[in-house]
Amino acid sequence: MGEFLALGRRDPADESEPFNMAYLAIRGSGAINAVSRLHGSVSRAIFSDLFPRWPKAEVPVGYVTNGVHTPTWDSVYAQRLWAAACGKEPWVGTMEDVSAKIRAMPDDLLWGLRMSNRKALVEYLRARLLRQYAAAGESPEDVKLSQSVFNPNALTLGFARRFATYRRPTLLLHDPERLARILTNRRLPVQLVIAGKAHPADEPGKAMIRQWTQFVKRPEVRGRVVFVADYDMMVAEQLVQGVDVWINTPRRPWEASGTSGMKVLVNGGLNLSELDGWWSEAYAPEVGWAIGDGREHGDDPAWDAAEAESLYELLGHEVIPAFYTRNEKDIPTRWMARMRESMARLTPRFSANRTVREYTETYYLPAAAAYRKREANRGALAEEIVNWRRDMSEHWATIRFGSLEVASAGGSHQFSVEVHLDEVVRDNVSVELYAEPTDDSRPVPISMRRGTKLSGWENGYIYSAQVQADRPASDYTVRIIPSKPEALVPLEANLIAWHRS
Ligand SMILES: *Cc1c(COP(=O)(O)O)cnc(C)c1O
User: Fold this and answer.
1) 272: Cβ below 6 Å to ligand 1?
2) Are residue 200 and residue 240 in the same domain, yes or no?
């Protein structure tokens, strides 16, 4: 029991430390992945505690960005349009030519999809509200009014999620008067559908829902904004099919991935979201709109206010004009360009097909192959790895560095360093030059060659390497890490020794 609990602590020896499920999971896993690129980098920072002295970039957490099961979320109209463009099963196989085929779709067909989907949403909302209002005992007048909410031709915005504080579901309500003005512009009408749920014990979440239900009751926005109770997958399905723009306002970097915005893609909906989760890797000006500056600001109220401001600005100056600027056939051509590019570029990329393929290729198949190798010959390799690990951890502390010499000439740096491996088997380790990457790429340590044996010492050698002098020699540090081609480092041998000059 004690041993088991220790697996859930940063410091296994510290019995006062609370048990952490994620730590246990990491210690029991042969591979670890996050669910978006940003989530990968956040997770490497969170779990760097488990890999002390390892560079953050080498904390062994990769990522596979989530995707949605596209056939679950497409409307009948979307299904028809994609089938006409790409054949019956666009979401199987490598989806190679899907993008080109959607890019070739004419404006009127794409716009037709939006019109049909929006109209279906309006009908759904009226039927849903009829039941919702009747069940809540609203006045007959209100029940009657619910049958004329929304306009099938008006720009339709949607926002639906669990009302957790980090998602800032009331960011749009930051300045309610301003939101009301946006919604009630006669010439450029905008309508907004909100759906959400809060955990029964989540008081701030419930308070945010009340803010919306109160806003919805304002006489001037009647019929222009709808709150749908009991958000679930059936509601989500209708919403993601019908809206023109899906809004998401989490506080970066709290949204691990987010998938609801992916569900609108196949239906030609556009995203306007915080640069967080999947949107921080999907966003480009050609495919939608973004708020945030790609940095973290904690829960600074001034920053929330600034983001609310940029949300209103985007809506007022970009989204709404783009929707209502029409050509002679009454088609919003700028909107169509974004919609086409969002569908072509993002729908295949954020589909479960791509996700499952990536899991299979980068995680499952390698894991299965590694397992087969380890278990062959009655687990000969597995046993070898266990012994290698034991040898490493028993003797690691005996490793010492001697002097380091650096000579820079002819456009390169020549490093040589004395290493005393003492009781550690020399083939079990690798001596490397490490430099922090200058961008957010993966570091590429340079392997040092073992050379002359140090005289007067057992198991001591000079290691050397030459690197191009495009960075100063001081950027590089010599280090020793456990090394075995079939083993996972640092996951299975969490040891590292740095040369300190
Ligand atoms: C897709 C979906 C979610 C998850 O979406 P987020 O982007 O995390 O909000 C949550 N609830 C329902 C009902 C969904 O359909």
Assistant:
1) no
2) yes
Q: How far apart are CA 480 and CA 496, in angstroms?
A: 6
Please state the atom number of ligand 1 nearest to the C-alpha of residue 232.
Answer: 13
Determine whether the shortest distance from the Cβ of 161 to ligand 1 is under 6 A. yes
Range of the domain at 435: 31-63+360-498
Q: Say yes or no: 177 and 315 in one domain.
A: yes
H-helix or E-strand spanning residue 162: strand 155-162
**End-to-end Cα separation, the chain, in angstroms:** 43
User: 319 and 390: one domain?
Assistant: no
- Cα(327) to ligand 1 centroid in Å equals 36
**How far apart are the C-alpha atoms of 363 and 368, rounded to whole Å?**
9
In whole angstroms, give the CA distance from residue 102 to residue 96.
12
Smallest Cα–Cα separation from 343: which of 36, 73, 120, 125?
A: 73
Residue 6 lies in a domain: no
- Does a structural domain hold residue 7? no
- Ligand 1, atom 15, lies closest to the CA of 233
Atom of ligand 1 nearest to the CA of 68: 1
pTM over 0.90: yes
333 is written with which tokens?
A: 């051509």
Residues 6+ positions from 8 with CB-CB distance below 8 Å: 19, 20, 21, 23, 24
Tell me, yes or no, whether 161 and 188 share the same domain. Answer: yes
CATH number at residue 208: 3.40.50.2000
The 10s digit of each residue's pLDDT in 69-127 is: 999 999 999 999 999 999 988 998 888 899 999 999 999 999 999 999 999 999 999 99
